[in-house]
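wait is this the right file?? whatever heres the structure
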């Protein structure tokens, strides 16, 4: 990027050289006219004095015209790039003595300058030989300065130094030329060394050409101290007010990260030019001050000084637009470039294509690229990088191949490789990755540390960790970044133990881990839920003072959240001195993911009260918390907040809102949000299909599934989970089996355990136990607890005790630590009256310290959630609720309700069973809802367990006698009770 802003030394060099050449030519011209008489031909001796004088003047004029014409011809040839022809012409004219020494010197200077600009070192060497061979010119100060500069511009500073060392006398111009030569070729230490020699061993004083070169060298070394010393020298010498010195100081402070110092220099400058503005704009952008960069750009355009941007300005501002993904500003800069006639410049075209690609507008980037008739390697790299960032594997490699075949001179460089490698993400790209590696080895790119590290990471992403390690071990010098690349590869590929070993090896090698090392390893531990390793790294971070780093702090939060330790994360969060937006998001998401929705919502409220504006990720997490609580009113408030903040334009936020309404019992609201989406991706379709599924509306789910495919969208794993679940809840067994078969046969999606679980559940609910068992036997892997528990529930519903016993043994064998599994087994025996077996199962639970989850229902009234537990005597307005239930029981009994005591799976007397049923949490919650909500409004109740048969039956009758909709969500699905009937059709 630093090359974008023209360096002050170039302008000053041209200025000095022009002045010097002009002075020298003038001086020689004066002496030339005083010696014309010595070239008078002998033949003129026989002519009169007047005739002789006239002819002598005529000859002088003719000679002068010829010399001028010859010089103009050389300049014209240099401007057109015909340097070989210009050299030949110069030699002929010199041999014919058509040019006097002064004009010969000027012609050579013009040719040397052209050789430097066009990097034609061979012609430059031959001109150098001509100068050295001339006794008149070999010690010419100007020509020797031009020779030093020519070699440096051609990338050969060693030749520049050779010329410099052979000079018998050196003036300040030659010292400046050699310092500039080293700086131009990024040999910054050599430049500084020559500067020290200049000020310590000669009487020359550095001027306003010397100092900018040395300041640039200081910036190249990131040696702020040296830069400040040179700044002090400039102040003492009165050069700090010079515009070129000021520009160099702005660039140096910007590169060293002292933006405030750069601004101070800029504001103190008595005179500013366009380079000054370009330098301060770049200083802002390079240090992440995007807004300040844009502000400076606007000030440059419309302020008092009002400069017209040049190519350097445009290519400095466009990367800021790209970094911010601000397409509107980028398009405005594009329009300005067109108006100024700069858009066809190669650097501007490349920057525009890069900006559009980084903003996600690849079509526009491709259009600019295609119209570019002067493509260079940067043009190709920008476009290749754009497709690689978009993870478009085919277009990335196609473009790379096209670059190699379309132009024989265009060869991929190390930047091309770095642009292509990020697209190598899967095993399928391993062959292409190896081809790229081979190309890099043939062209010597393995000596570029960035390229080697990128190959280590790419091989790891493609699952070839052995290749990653091989590349790593062949590195001559391993830096922290190299270790990070390999460590991160193992950490993210399910081998945290190996990553930890590498971490220890890295420490033993004498290299200390940086924040990226720690953060990457913690991320791996989070993904693997490796709390033990994560705690070890946490201890290391604390001992080395790295815990305060924001990136590491968030990584530690994620570790404890992912490992199911949200309260440990809370302690860490509370202890943070500066909480970033990312840390708030991580904590809110952590509570939601760990089944603590109340804490997630409370923390979100605290975040807002602290004046922190949330991002989309926080909205999604709180939507998830509202879904868990089925807190519809809170969800509606969040929806309104999202609309005002325009978060609903994000498809993930909208999908979260659709899911929230569906899980809150308002599938109609979900559908309205879904229908209002401008663009619907697969995720949005998945959410709405699953929503209809949990509401038992299988036919609507199927209709959506078919519409999705008609629109050209390809269903994925999650789509099929949703549609299979919908078929299961609606009893659409044949449709479900058809879709299950389509997965592999039509869509080439290998069914996973989750899909088999849905089908087993669907067959079991329908009583097709043999088919369900056959499917379990055909599983590609071992059945997990979800499949066995689903099958066991079906055995209980259909009273299949014999099969149930076998399934129960399998379930407890696979997952013996979950209390709900023992409850399922106990309920199986209780449903068949096997009370001794029930007592045996409950005794086993007691022996291993397991306790059954108590039945709990909750209801949201006025934005507050009220919980009801069976047997809880501390319920709000308990007597009033019980009185309401007694009144309801009388009314529903009069129209046919009778207590179903088979729902009580305890060996008790009938009266005791009836008493237990009256205290069921869903009955209490429904009664509370009828008592506290407006007449005619729906009552929405949520339960942590499956609704029992008696409560289901009672809810149907209640909906009829009170003429209100009652919605109950249990742990399986929604039940919509209306006018004495349930949406499930008693199929649940």
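ok assuming it is, sequence goes like this
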């Amino acid at each position: 990027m630093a090359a974008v802003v023209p360096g002050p030394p170039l302008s000053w060099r041209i200025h000095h050289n022009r002045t010097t050449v002009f002075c020298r030519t003038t001086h020689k011209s004066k002496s030339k006219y005083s010696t014309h008489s010595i070239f008078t031909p002998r033949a003129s001796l026989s002519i009169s004095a007047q005739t002789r004088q006239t002819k002598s003047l005529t000859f002088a004029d003719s000679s002068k015209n010829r010399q001028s014409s010859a010089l103009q011809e050389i300049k014209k040839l240099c401007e057109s790039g015909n340097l070989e022809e210009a050299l030949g012409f110069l030699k002929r004219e010199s041999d014919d003595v058509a040019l006097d020494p002064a004009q010969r010197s000027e012609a050579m200077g013009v040719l040397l300058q052209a050789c430097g600009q066009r990097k034609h070192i061979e012609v430059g060497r031959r001109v150098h030989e001509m100068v050295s061979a001339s006794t008149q010119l070999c010690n010419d100060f100007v020509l020797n300065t031009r020779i030093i500069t020519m070699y440096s511009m051609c990338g050969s500073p060693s030749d520049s130094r050779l010329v410099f060392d052979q000079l018998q006398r050196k003036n300040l111009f030659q010292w400046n030329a050699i310092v500039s030569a080293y700086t131009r070729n990024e040999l910054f230490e050599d430049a500084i060394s020559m500067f020290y020699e200049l000020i310590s061993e000669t009487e020359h004083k550095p001027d306003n050409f010397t100092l900018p070169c040395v300041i640039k060298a200081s910036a190249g070394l990131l040696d702020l101290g040296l830069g400040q010393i040179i700044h002090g020298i400039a102040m003492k010498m009165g050069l700090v007010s010079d515009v070129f010195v000021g520009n160099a100081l702005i660039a140096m402070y910007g590169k060293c990260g002292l933006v405030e110092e750069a601004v101070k220099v800029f504001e103190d400058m008595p005179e500013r030019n366009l380079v000054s503005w370009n330098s301060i704009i770049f200083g802002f952008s390079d240090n992440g001050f995007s807004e300040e960069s844009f502000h400076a750009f606007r000030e440059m355009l419309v302020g008092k000084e009002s400069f017209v941007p040049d190519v350097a300005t445009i290519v400095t501002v466009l990367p800021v637009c790209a970094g911010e993904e601000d397409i509107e500003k980028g398009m405005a800069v594009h329009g300005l470039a067109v108006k100024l006639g700069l858009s066809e410049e190669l650097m501007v075209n490349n920057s525009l294509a890069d900006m559009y690609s980084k903003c996600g507008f690849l079509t526009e980037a491709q259009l600019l690229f295609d119209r570019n008739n002067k493509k260079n390697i940067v043009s190709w790299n920008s476009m290749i990088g754009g497709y690689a960032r978009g993870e478009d594997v085919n277009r990335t490699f196609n473009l790379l191949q096209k670059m190699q075949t379309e132009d024989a001179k265009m060869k991929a460089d190390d930047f091309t490789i770095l642009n292509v490698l990020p697209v190598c993400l899967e095993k399928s790209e391993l062959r292409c990755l190896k081809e790229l590696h081979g190309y890099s080895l043939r062209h010597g790119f393995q000596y570029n540390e960035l390229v080697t590290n990128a190959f280590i990471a790419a091989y790891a992403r493609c699952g070839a960790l052995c290749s990653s390690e091989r590349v790593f071990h062949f590195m001559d010098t391993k830096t922290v970044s190299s270790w990070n690349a390999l460590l991160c590869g193992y950490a993210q590929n399910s081998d945290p133990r190996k990553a930890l070993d590498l971490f220890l090896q890295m420490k033993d090698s004498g290299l200390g881990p940086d924040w990226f090392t720690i953060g990457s390893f913690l991320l791996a531990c989070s993904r693997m839920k490796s709390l033990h390793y994560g705690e070890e790294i946490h201890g290391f971070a604390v001992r080395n003072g790295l815990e305060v780093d924001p990136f590491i702090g968030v990584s530690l939060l994620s570790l404890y959240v992912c490992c199911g330790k949200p309260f440990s994360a809370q302690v860490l969060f509370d202890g943070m001195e500066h909480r970033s937006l990312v840390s708030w998001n991580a904590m809110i998401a952590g509570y939601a993911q760990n089944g603590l929705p109340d804490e997630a919502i409370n923390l979100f409220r605290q975040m807002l009260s602290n004046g922190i504006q949330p991002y989309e990720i926080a909205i999604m997490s709180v939507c998830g918390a509202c879904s868990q609580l089925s807190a519809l009113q809170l969800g509606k408030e969040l929806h309104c907040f999202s609309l005002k903040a325009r978060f609903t334009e994000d498809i993930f936020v909208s999908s979260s809102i659709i899911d929230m309404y569906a899980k809150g019992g308002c599938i109609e609201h979900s559908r309205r949000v879904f229908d209002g989406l401008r663009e619907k991706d697969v995720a949005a379709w998945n959410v709405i299909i699953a929503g209809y599924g949990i509401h038992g509306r299988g036919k609507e789910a199927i209709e959506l599934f078919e519409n999705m495919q008609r629109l050209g969208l390809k269903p994925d794993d999650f789509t099929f989970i949703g549609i299979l679940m919908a078929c299961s809840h609606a009893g659409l067994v044949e449709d479900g089996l058809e879709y299950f078969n389509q997965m592999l046969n039509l869509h080439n999606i290998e069914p996973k355990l989750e899909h088999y679980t849905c089908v087993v559940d669907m067959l079991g609910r329908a009583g097709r136990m043999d088919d369900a068992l056959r499917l379990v036997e055909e599983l590609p892997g071992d059945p997990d607890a979800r499949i066995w528990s689903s099958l066991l529930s079906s055995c209980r519903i259909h009273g299949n005790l014999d099969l149930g016993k076998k399934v129960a043994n399998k379930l407890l064998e696979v997952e013996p630590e979950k209390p709900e599994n023992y409850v399922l087994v106990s309920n199986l025996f209780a449903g068949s009256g096997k009370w001794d077996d029930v007592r045996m199962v409950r005794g086993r639970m007691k022996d291993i310290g397991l306790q059954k989850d108590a039945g709990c229902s909750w209801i949201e009234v006025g934005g507050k959630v009220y919980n009801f537990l069976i047997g809880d005597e501390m319920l709000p307005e308990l007597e009033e609720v019980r009185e309401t239930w007694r009144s309801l029981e009388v009314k529903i009994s009069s129209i046919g309700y009778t207590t179903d005591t088979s729902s009580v799976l305890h060996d008790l007397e009938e009266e005791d069973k009836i008493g237990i049923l009256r205290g069921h949490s869903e009955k209490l919650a429904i009664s509370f809802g009828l008592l506290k909500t407006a007449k005619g409004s729906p009552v929405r109740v949520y339960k942590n367990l499956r609704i029992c048969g008696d409560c289901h039956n009672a809810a149907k009758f209640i909906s009829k006698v009170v003429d209100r909709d009652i919605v109950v969500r249990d742990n399986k699905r929604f039940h919509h009770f209306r006018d004495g009937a349930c949406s499930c059709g008693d199929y649940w």
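Residues 453 and 481 are 7 Å apart (CA to CA). so i think its the right one actually
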